[in-house]
Amino acid sequence: MRSLFWRILASFWLAIALVAGLSILLGHMLNQDAWILSRHPGLHNLPEKWTQLYENEGEGAAQDFLQGLKRKYHIDVQVLNDSGEAVIPGTFPPRAAAFEARQKDDPRQLPWRRLTSEYTSPKTEETYLLIYRIPHPELDAWHRESLLWPLSALGIALVVLTLFSLLVTLSITRPLSRLRGAVHDLGQTTYQQNSLAQLANRRDEFGVLANDFNRMGARLQSLIGSQRQLLRDVSHELRSPLARLRIALALAERAEPAEREKLWPRLTRECDRLEELIGEILALARLDADMGSATAIDLPGLLHHLKAETELGSTDQTVAVQVQADVQLQGWPNVLERALDNLLRNALRFNPSGQPIELSARNEDDTLFISVRDHGPGVSEDHLAQLGEPFYRAPGQTAPGYGLGLAIAKRAAEKHGGHLLLENHPQGGFIASIVVPHDLATVHS
């Protein structure tokens, strides 16, 4: 992965290296004596060259060397020994020395720059003091030439650093601009999956972020679509009982008192159906709300309570409960009870008399199954995948209901970190199971 972190770190250290190098260079330039002695072409390695000539070829060759230096660079040189005596005549005239002595209190008035350096011969171990006097015009001309290189280096460094910083900045701002556009589109519900396709192919943090954003966008689009579909289904389902109520009221207004009395039970039934439908819709909506932290659920107690309530409301149906001793679940008891109650009521509609409805909780392969099985006709395989969608009812179903019971059970299973498994039982009938992985069943919060 080409990490953005390493790009920023590299640019940071490059800037530090450039600044440090330029600081060292400018520091040398500020130390003028050392800078001139080390960089001026006439003074560079001058003590070593002069000492070799003096010791190997004598005073004449050493004096000629200084004369040639004066002719070429206009630099006067004196060479003194440890006692302060001149080793050779040098090129600095006595009158100039007298003038310099008179201006010792104000050396800025001198027409030259005075520099000194010491050199010890590795051969004779003699120490020589070399005094250089460079005329200001010569020094100024050399300064203008010598500053071209550091200034050029500084300019090149600034250009490189600017370009590199620009590239790093663009590598950050362009993906952020694309993400900002995607966020705007998502807020306007016009988000397209391919809007971040190119960014998602990157192998850095922005690529990871774009992939995560794509998944989030797809999920939000799906939720928005589901919400719109739910609103359309709710409006459609509410329209039928409201229309029946309106017709019944219209008939009651025109009917004679005796006939009106016969219409009241019909009005009552329609109101009850409407109230039941609204209750189911509200129960489905509450499952998406924050219901606090999960708690331990007493599954055996909950299943036996549901058995008693179901048998109390249906005199011709029985419920058989089977619960393993080691089943555990962290969750929301009221949500799970409502989901299982809907599954049991769904089973009551199709289970024949004389056959018990089977309510069980068991562990299989580190997975908790809470199942409700009836012995009815089952569901066609073509429609199993759509069961659990709000207001969906399998074709040909004549039992009363609004298609919300399985949807509530499905949402409850998802809230507990699992899913709703709907299938036909191999031995006949239909089985609905809330399936929760073992790690979520024991520690889910």
Taking the alpha carbons of the first and last residues, their distance comes to: 34 Å
Shape label: rod-shaped
Tell me how many strands there are.
10
Structural class: alpha+beta
Rounded Rg? 48 Å
Query: Mean pLDDT, rounded to whole units?
Result: 78
Sheet having the most strands: 5 strands, mixed
Q: What sequence of helices (H) and strands (E) makes up the elements? A: HHHHEHEEHHHHHEHEEHEEHEEH
Instruction: Please tally the helical runs, counting DSSP H or I stretches of 4 or more residues.
Output: 14
Task: Describe the protein's architecture and organization.
- With 445 residues, the protein is α+β, with helices and mostly antiparallel strands.
- The protein has helices spanning 4-30, 32-39, 46-57, 59-73, 94-102, 136-146, 148-187, 197-200, 205-254, 257-286, 299-313, 333-350, 405-415, 438-443, and strands at 76-80, 112-120, 127-135, 295-296, 319-323, 330-331, 357-363, 367-374, 419-424, 430-437.
- The strands form three sheets. Strands 5-7-8-10-9 form a five-stranded mixed sheet. Strands 1-3-2 form a three-stranded antiparallel sheet.
- Helix 1 packs antiparallel against helix 7 and helix 12 (333-350) packs antiparallel against helix 13.
